[in-house]
Amino acid sequence: MIEYLRLALATCIVLLPGRVAARALGLRDTASTVALGLACVFVAWTVVFTLHTSVHFGLAVLFLIGIALFLVARRVRRVPRIAGHPAVWFVGIVLGLLLWHVAGPVTGDGLFHLARVRKLVELPGLHLRSVDELAGGGLHPGYAFPLWHGFLAFVASLSGLDSGSVVKHEAAVLTPLACAVAWEAGFRLFRSRSLAWAVLLAQLGALLFAAGHGGSFASLSLPATASRLLLAPVALALVFGWIETRRRGYLVGVAAVFGELALVHPTYALFVLMPLVGYAALRPRDWRVNAAFFGAAVVPIGLAYLWLKPIVDETLSHNPGPGERLAGLLRYGNQLQVWNDHHYRMGPGTITRAGAVVILGFALIPLAGAAVRRRWGSFVLGGSLVILAVILMPELFPRFADAVSLSQARRSAGFIPVPFAVAGGLAVLCGITRATVPAAFIAGIALEIAYPGDFNYNLAYPGPAIVTWWAAIGGAGAVAAGFLVRRHRPFIERRWSGGVAAAVFVLPVAISGFIHWNPSERRDPGALSPALVQALRELPAQAVVLADTQTSYRIAALRPVYLVAAPPTHVANTRSNDPYGRYREVEHWLATGDPAVPKKYGATWAVRGSRLYRLSP
């Protein structure tokens, strides 16, 4: 509990300048605080990297930013707070505490991110290349500016906890924030507390409960998950806050959060924009308002992409050649429908693989046609159809995959506005029949039994493909019907009943999730021996270490050092990194002891088996 409170206090302090900045702009919601707080973190780390200083200097800069903003905010008249609900924070805190107990060891991608956070916390004279994992390597195109790693480094420094504890447990502290911004996004779109709860419950059902073991929320401290579960709802809440209130402060927040998305996980900035393009296409009369938020979003994204372009051009998965494209199709083949290497698409069953809530959301997408003239109907229908068109059309998807990489293109399906479809669709059904609430409970049980979801890396149990086609074809028909057929009386949405229906539908999913409420991995299968860990703690900072790739991966997470090689699947496949070439050279050294390998990369330390030793110069 003491560690939780230390992490929570440190997180609040890091985001406090964002709260003050929001107040200065006349905003008082959680989404603005998060967006502007990370903007202040970005400024602080930019100063650090420019002056080649340390994390402590960055915290001092952040403090000065907060003071300056406070002096400005004092002159701003008091503004009303968004009509929030303390129960949202209560639910988020309870779930966060529960997640604390299912946090397993840091493994997989978490080791890569932990290594970067550790370097930012422990090294002096920081610059952008300080967080590289490989000696003589290059910047990672997805994390060239380590904004999220910098946020975690500030939290680690302020809390006094080891970087490993922060990466392992920060998800528990971020969960209340993720709940609050999801609720705010639902409230801004529906103008209903009940349907805001429905959006939040659908989000929790799909991404926390369905998979068990804490779901995606258990990895909320990692950049990709934070982008999807925290920054994406922040972006939607701010966009719809602007559309609703026309306060220009929201445009500043929109610019900040899309710029942050472009740095924290570049492709996700594009994925969040895609459903907003569909929304705007269905609301041409609002073109001035829509153009304003698109301008605020596109400018920072464009600047970030322009800066990243030279690094992206080095990445072999971007505009891949025939060999790289074939390797990608073989790697993800069971998630695709492939005719040839230029003609393939996402498998319809892959898109609905994530269990009962996602299946229900897809089934309800066409019902948004009944409210296509309303904001939520336009967003659900337009947003869903844009993404479905891209991932289901074999003429479009290969081009999309070439632009953002096949690995990333698959993830765009996760940005279909399923939680909003669940909330709005159930409200529509409740307006049609009072039997919706009990039917939702029965459907939740049935779908959880029939399609509990497949959350493994290799897909074995796809979801029902027919639901995907129903969403795509039925949604397209619903758009036409919604605009062409004129109703003689206003359509009734029963919002309170819709919220209740969402709650009872998610209940069986939540029960199943709590049945599997334990760490997905209780121990790291590749953990280093205690004796080696003790020896590695004496390694000097910034040493270059030569070892097999799996051992190297864990060494970098333990100490702020650089590696000769790391597992190729966890390294950016750029020409300067050459992960597969380095892997072959390390295997050659392990087999022969060839001194040319450590000499080539300037390695000063090596590990064989469980023994650490210094290499001769």
From TrEMBL:
Transmembrane segments: 42-71, 83-103, 195-213, 225-243, 291-308, 354-372, 378-397, 418-447, 467-485, 497-517
Name by which UniProt lists this protein: Unannotated protein
Keyword hit for ATP-binding: no
Keywords: Membrane, Transmembrane, Transmembrane helix
Record organism: freshwater metagenome
